[in-house]
Amino acid sequence: YLAEEGRALLDGARLWLPESEVKVYGAPRRLVFIGENIAAAQAPLTSRKRGPAVRVAFDAEGKPTKAAEGFARRWGLTPDQLERGEAEGGEYVFAVIEEPTLPAAEALGPLLPELIASIPFPKTMRWGDGSLRFGRPIRWLLALVDEEVVEFSLGPLKSGRLTRGHPVLADGMYEVGSAGEYEEVLERRQVIVEPEQRKAVLVRLLEGQSRQAGGRVVDDGLLAETTYLVERPAAAVGQFDPDFLRLPRPVLEDEMRHVQCYFPLEDDSGKLLPRFIAVRDGGEEHLDKVLAGWESVLRSKLIDASYFYEQDLKRPLADRVEDLKGVVFQEKLGTMYEKMERVRAVAKHLAQQVGLGEEERALLDRAALLCKADLTTQMVTELSNLQGIMGREYALASGEPREVAEAIGEHYRPRSATDGIPGTHLGRLLAIADKIDSVTSYLAVGMTPTGSADPFGLRREALGIVKIAREGDLRFGIGRLVETAYGALGDGVAGKLPGDQVLANVEEFIRQRLETELREDGVRYDLVDAALAVGVDDIFLSSRRARALQELSGRDDFLPTVIATTRVINIIKGFEGGEVDEKLLMEKGEPAEKADLIAGLRKPIDRFFDEVLVMHEDEEIRRNRLAMCWQINEKLFRRLADFSLIVQG
Q1: Of the candidates 555, 575, 632, the residue with the CA atom closest to the CA atom of residue 601
Q2: Are strands 90-98 and 144-145 parallel, antiparallel or unpaired?
Q3: Which of 417, 336, 406, 322 is nearest to 367 (CA)?
Q4: CB 190 within 8 A of CB 210
């Protein structure tokens, strides 16, 4: 955000040059925006402001009227300084305004406070007596153009040339003589401000420490997170009692990584070791004492985890299903037990759509029954990141079939935009059922995400549906699943929207996610629009249609094909439809085959319109020919795309 908006700010301020560059750095106590090689002063800008028509601005003798005088005065000019020019078929007077050209520091002063205040955060805070809201309290502002301070105020703070060093190794305020010295000044004060440099230091530390410990680092995004938690990293290897290795690996890793930001270690065979690497923001002085504290904290956490695990194992997972009646899913949408029942209903319908056998249907239903039961365990209450994951562990410990356990463990995936889809077929189906229910239920009571606010993660859930369908080669109809989920809500849900409106809202919500995915895959925007315009009920097929269009667009006959199809579409506008013997129309199944077929019809279509008068004076003949065109569009063209949305050029 800061890089894009900062560049736009420099561009709008007329300071951006072809050789200009932007750098953005982040560290625990500072956000840094650097614009390199920007102009020393704003580029000249001349604007033309249109005034009254010449015939109004001047009388018959060519003298300025009050209209001309008033217009000129408005722009600080005299009537004789106004210029004449053509506009919209007439002659008008214009005021030519030379915008003031300010030095860079002076031009940026009013703009930087707006840039800082606009940085978005999931949550913001106020501090002191001020009204400024930001992610954290702002303690100082440094703003320089070369050696000159960019003067501005933000809340109670005024900008200057002072910055802070490392809070432990070089605490205090330090002067920065010029913008070019910034990174050097911080380096002398023990701050590595450039994130990639900090990351490189971290990698060297982790590799060196892990070799000494006889293991290798287990990293699941923790390196990227830790890079932004330290300004001068130091690291050490700690250990814990090997007896704790009896705990499931996800518990140990979660306690180390997500709770304490320790890096777990494993041996060459992938077995977890009773060791970890912890990173400190500071030097190595007294690191042994700090390490003892790290080990003590982890030991306390693992003692608690062991107790929770042992207590949870005393009850089979299936015995906990009834407990879900006491867990609220959402105030308007009832309990987790009710959600689980809806998921079962959707999963049952989904199983029919994909043609599961009787045995697999039973396994999927069992997984749906148990998928939320771990929410009542002490372990998941303490470590919410492990929901589903502990369900898998407890299902196996309870003697449930492995297929059921794996589906339970996977059904929250993908948990993020970078997470993969479930690895098993049942896991994918259960994930689809769960996500369809969540999206349908929330949208049914009007809880649609707005702007950047998405408190229930519905965009993530919809994106998960899209990713599973596309990457898992799953064919299913969204509409029927949404109808099932909506019907399972029952009549007791207050404020429930009509079913047809909910279906339309859900399909549009998912369509937006699919559109984004396809565009990120490189499919041209108009081809995406054309492919999705004919429906997104089958996500996998819709995606294939868009890709088929993309491939077709690279052929020499693409544009002539689009023009030919548009001739058919244009002539049937306003025609309600009609019947033609469908045996005369060819049909193929794959989108790529449809694309080939349509491309092959270009010449016959052109010949048809050249030799046949569709709008015949005989009403019966005219209607029959229109019906044939309508059927070709509906039964063939629109099985692939709405060709009228494709840009011809």
Answers
A1: 632
A2: unpaired
A3: 406
A4: no
| Rounded to 5°, angle at Cα 268 from 262 and 272 | 40
Taking each helix axis from N to C end, the angle separating 558-571 and 539-553, rounded to the nearest 10 degrees, works out to 120
Cβ-in-10-Å burial (0-12, 13-18, 19+) of 619 comes to exposed
In this structure, the number of other CB atoms found within 10 A of the CB of residue 598 comes to 24
| Cβ-based neighbours of 211, under 8 Å, separated by 6 or more | none
> What would the two tokens of residue 209 be?
């420490």
In single-letter form, the type of residue at position 537 comes to D
**H or E stretch at 641:** none
Burial grade of 551 (CB within 10 A; 0-12, 13-18, 19 or more): middle
Asked if residue 233 has a cis previous peptide bond (ω within 30° of 0), the answer is no
Structure tokens that stand for 394 in this block: 């407890």
- CA pair distance 56, 93, nearest whole angstrom: 9
Q: Is residue 85 scored above 80 in pLDDT?
A: yes
Compute the CA torsion angle 227, 228, 234, 239 (nearest 10 deg).
Answer: -80
**CA trace torsion 536, 537, 540, 544 (10° rounding):** -40
CB 64 within 8 A of CB 74: no
- Three-state SS at 268: coil
Classify 326 as helix, strand or coil.
helix
Peptide bond into 100 cis (omega under 30): no
pTM score: 0.77
Beta strands in 262-421 (DSSP E): 263-266, 272-281, 328-330, 334-335
DSSP track, 37-70: T--SBPPP-EEEEEEEEHHHHB-TTS-B-HHHHH
Give the number of other CB atoms < 10 A from CB of residue 221: 10
Q: Which residue has the tokens 């819709």?
A: 542
Q: Average pLDDT, stretch 114-118?
A: 93
Q: What is the DSSP secondary structure assignment for residue 255, as one 8-state letter?
A: I
Q: How many CB atoms are closer than 10 A to CB 129?
A: 7
pLDDT digits (tens, 9 = 90+) for 470-509: 999 999 999 999 999 999 998 778 888 999 999 999 999 9
DSSP secondary structure code for residue 257 in this structure: I
Give pLDDT, residue 629: 61
CA atoms within 13 A on the CB side of 418: 2
CA within 13 Å, CB half, 57: 24
- Give the integer Cα–Cα distance in Å for 594 and 600: 10
SS3 333: coil
